[in-house]
From TrEMBL:
Organism the protein comes from: Streptococcus pseudopneumoniae
Region Disordered, annotated ranges: 100-125, 241-279, 350-410, 431-466, 516-583
Bias kind Basic and acidic residues: ranges: 350-366, 376-395, 432-463, 516-529
Superkingdom of source: Bacteria
Listed Low complexity bias regions: 530-542, 572-583
Protein known as: Uncharacterized protein
Ranges in coiled-coil conformation: none
Compositional bias (Pro residues): 543-553
Amino acid sequence: MNKKKMVLTSLASVAVLGAGFVESQPVTVKAEVASTASASSAVEQAKSKVAEAEKKVQEAQKIYDEAQKKVEEKAKAVEVLDAELQKINQLVQEAFVKRREAQEAKNRKSDSENIKKLKEADEKIDEELKKQAEKKREFDQKMQESIPNVDPLLKTLKTETAKLKTAKQQLENAKVAEKTEKEAKVKKVETELTQAKEKVKKQAEEDKRNYPTNTNKTLELEIAESDVKVKEAELKLAKEEAKELRDEGAIKQAKADVESEKAKATELKNTKTDREKAEKVAKQKVEEVKDLKDTLEQLEKAAEEEINKNDKIKDKIKAIADAKEAIGKEDLLKAIENGDISVDEVAKELEESAKVREPTDEDLSKDNLPGAQITDKTKKTNQELNEAESKKLAEVDAQEAARPVSEKIQDRADDLAEKIEALTEDANALKAEADKKSERLDKTNKTLKETNEAFKSAKENKVDQSIIDGLEKAKTSLEAQAKKEATELAKAASDIQAYAEEINKLTDEYNETLKSLEEAKKKEAEKPAESTQPTQPEKPAEQPQPAPKPEQPTQPEKPAEEPTQPEKPAEEPTQPAQPEKPA
């Protein structure tokens, strides 16, 4: 199954499950957090908009102020000119009054003095009229000067000011959302930390039950404790990021602590994976030794049957003993146990024994049948061992001896993906059961409502008391049933939420493992010769063994070995990844 597709399917299932039953705490999965911007980025965007709006307001204000200044300057100048013009007008009027008086004086007495005064009065009028005309020209010129129209500028200023107010309000809203998101994140991590601590407690109790005399921590307990440290580091980071006055230095250190603790946790989990693989290999070795023992016993049995059927052999007991001694089952098994010889080497030795000559008449007449003188049937058994067991064991030995780190991490990723898939299947089953519970509760509530209405109507209409009593009894029973079903539904919702959280956690771990896998591949790509060369000579050396054997049809006698074949595809997903390493 495609792992990425499987994980995405799992996440989608979780989202559906959570949305249906956990309204107060909606299920969120990392893969679903794909909105255009988080609350933090929304704050930054809002700040940018406020800054832009402030700049536009400043520009509009500057333009308006400059225009308003010109308007005010003109108004002030016009006011001054108007005052000066009015003053001159007054002087003109006064000059005309004095001329009239001089004219009247001359009319009464036309002497030289009155004539002189009249002439002076005329000259004064001419002088004041010239001043009046000049000032009027200045006034008209100032009035005709062009000035900006401030009305549209004021409108623009008000518009930009309103936009700034809106931007500031959006910024405040974004800050509130950011604060809410950060507080929710802190709460989420606190919950995860509590769960991690509870897991440590349960693991410690389990270890105490399973290993009452053991004072050392199990690897499982160390992993659980490392998860607690990761969550503690994440909580510290979340709290630092939630502070209104951010300390970038503290945040940077908190992030480094999170990465450090995650690296330690990953190392422990990789150790667990390696150990599980080693245990699996060890178990497989045990099975291989058992299979070898069975094969050796078959050889002994086959030799014994041939001896018993051969009438030429006189001392059958001695011949059987010699055959068993030649096969050397006990010695071989003991040597394998002590590490003096491998199962592979035994398989090769058995292959060589199949090439020993057939017994001659002289051998038969001397009741001397070496155990290495094996019949055609026994040869076939040897060939089967060489072709099936030997090849399989050799491949396992070679693969385990030269496995790259990336394959081990890939195994971890595969295990996590399988767990996510299994949990999702369980969660889907819970969802289906919860749907049924919800339908039952709806029916019960509907029946309860109808019963309540019937009970109320019966009391109001004063029907027979036995009917009222029956309805009351039914109502009480339905209320208890509805309460029970509601409790069961809530429990189902809680279980679904727990599955969703676990899947979410495993998905996070899966994604982290994929990152580690990519890093391992990069490191291995830098040393392609070291990662690939050691395994190359071993493979061709073993390939020729099964090819020359023409007696393959006897393999159906080995159905017990066939289940080992499906185990290979578990390693095959890592094979397509091999060509990517040099890249």
